[in-house]
Write a structure and sequence with these properties.
alpha+beta, 12 helices
């Protein structure tokens, strides 16, 4: 009978020579007990405690054998520690035991980093408006509402004169009757830069000493359809004629543009004309007093919800606007003005500057609005607007009378570029940017008021582009002609 035994802890198999060991020589675990019969178990004496038994040592020179079992030894079992004894309960006083528990909530701690609430300071008293520091500006605070009186008078000969003054409405002068009256509100910029502005209530009046005149009727010779682009073509042609100083074509272009209406309630051409004349004046000619009536017509033709009254223009009004276009084209020099003063929020007192500021308040292209605001805040002397006489009714502007340079890439989404490439195949490989640059410098930009400059070397395709541009312009004009 073999007396070898296997350790339960490290599974090391002890040989017969190590059978007398009572504990494992590898892990010092206790030797497992052999299962004996019940009678033998009852007669056997209780084993001595592990601490009292001597620990067996392996023989000298013996090497422990390692088992090749693939089983992973499990963790050693440890006995749970007994729970600690309960703490002694202190004696309870009868008076304390009889007191009911308190239910009051504790107040939360005040935040340490929040500022204390302080009462709002009383509003500062506004200082009254002061007298003008200069003859060219009214100092004003941006939160005030300013009342302006924009009045226009017409004499018996059809001449008009417009003026802008501070204050409310006034009764018509002796011998004149009021034919139109309305109110408009807008925000006027108090400086050419920044967002400082003030609310302005403008009272429009028109007093006449003669007949009202015949109402302006639709006399379109050019279509107003957006696909044909008659409005944009005539507007561009008017500006190019003013740049070149062609008074006759400028008057005829303005007259044809005003003739494009969509019924008696929508004079689209006149609205575009009165909005464009101030921009042309500042950009290509000079801010003359004739633009003040144009701004009056612009406001009178722009109703609002609070003031729906709309002015109905007459034939004499259109001829007055044509006279404004003639003066801008005949003016021989550009408008040279000093830079506006910085750091002052004020309204100009000059009628022309106020008219330009009002025109800028009615919006438009970003560059045009910035240009109008800068010119409006430049120093200018206070001048009385002279009488503006209407011109004689001009002849119709036929397609053969056009200045072909008046058609450029700003109309109908640059349609002229595609037409030019269709006219001449040599332009197929020229980029849009190069064509636009060539059109601007050789056709659109030319202004007789500018000093002559030495022309740069033309590109090799310049002659082909000139012929193609003229042919494309003729086709676009013919497409808008109504006959």
């Amino acid at each position: 009978m073999s007396s070898s035994w296997t350790c339960n802890q490290c599974t090391y198999v002890h040989s017969d020579a190590e059978a007398q060991f009572l504990c494992c020589a590898i892990c010092s675990a206790e030797r497992p007990k052999a299962i004996a019969p019940a009678s033998a178990q009852a007669a056997a004496p209780a084993p001595a405690p592990a601490a009292a038994r001597p620990r067996a040592k392996p023989p000298v020179g013996a090497k422990p054998r390692v088992s090749l079992s693939l089983q992973r030894p499990g963790p050693a079992t440890t006995r749970p520690a007994p729970p600690p004894p309960p703490a002694p309960t202190p004696p309870v006083d009868e008076a304390d035991a009889a007191a009911p528990p308190t239910t009051a909530k504790k107040k939360p701690l005040a935040p340490l980093f929040l500022p204390k609430k302080r009462p709002a300071p009383p509003p500062k008293a506004r200082a009254p408006l002061k007298a003008p520091r200069t003859a060219a500006a009214w100092p004003i605070q941006s939160q005030r509402t300013v009342a302006l009186r924009f009045s226009m008078a017409r004499d018996g000969e059809g001449r008009v004169r417009a003026s802008i003054e501070r204050g409310g409405p006034q009764a018509p002068a002796a011998g004149r009757r009021r034919v139109f009256e309305a109110e408009r509100t807008c925000k006027l910029a108090l400086a050419h830069e920044g967002k400082a502005a003030c609310d302005v209530k403008i009272h429009l009046t028109l007093d006449t000493a003669g007949e009202d005149g015949a109402a302006w009727r639709d006399r379109r010779t050019y279509t107003g359809a957006r696909a044909a682009g008659g409005l944009g073509l005539l507007q561009s042609h008017l500006q190019k004629c003013v740049r070149r100083g062609n008074v006759d074509l400028a008057v005829r272009s303005a007259h044809e543009l005003a003739g494009i209406t969509f019924g008696p309630t929508d004079p689209a051409g006149i609205k575009m004309l009165v909005r464009r004349l101030p921009v042309i004046a500042v950009e290509d000619s000079a801010a003359l007093p004739c633009i003040v009536p144009a701004v009056w017509y612009m406001m009178a033709l722009s109703p609002t919800e609070k003031s729906p009254a709309t002015y109905k223009p007459t034939a004499q009004d259109v001829l007055v606007l044509c006279a404004c276009a003639a003066q801008l084209a005949a003016h021989g020099s550009r408008d040279r003005f000093p830079p506006p003063r910085k750091g002052r929020n004020e309204l100009p007192t000059d009628g022309v500057n106020l008219a330009l500021l009002i025109r800028a308040a009615y919006g438009g292209m970003k560059g045009d609005v910035a240009m109008l605001r800068e010119r409006a805040h430049a120093a200018a002397p206070d001048e009385t607007s002279p009488w503006l006489a209407p011109v004689a009714a001009p002849p119709a502007l036929r397609p053969g009378d056009w200045l072909l340079e008046g058609v450029d890439f700003h109309q109908k989404g640059g349609e002229i570029l595609g037409r030019m490439r269709a006219k001449d195949m040599a332009l197929q490989f020229v980029s849009d940017e190069d064509l636009k640059k060539w059109i601007w410098h050789t056709r659109s930009k030319c202004n007789r008021r500018d000093a002559p400059r030495e022309p740069s070397a033309p590109p090799p395709w310049a002659d082909a582009a000139a012929r193609a541009a003229d042919a494309a312009a003729r086709d676009m004009i013919a497409g808008a002609w109504r006959g």
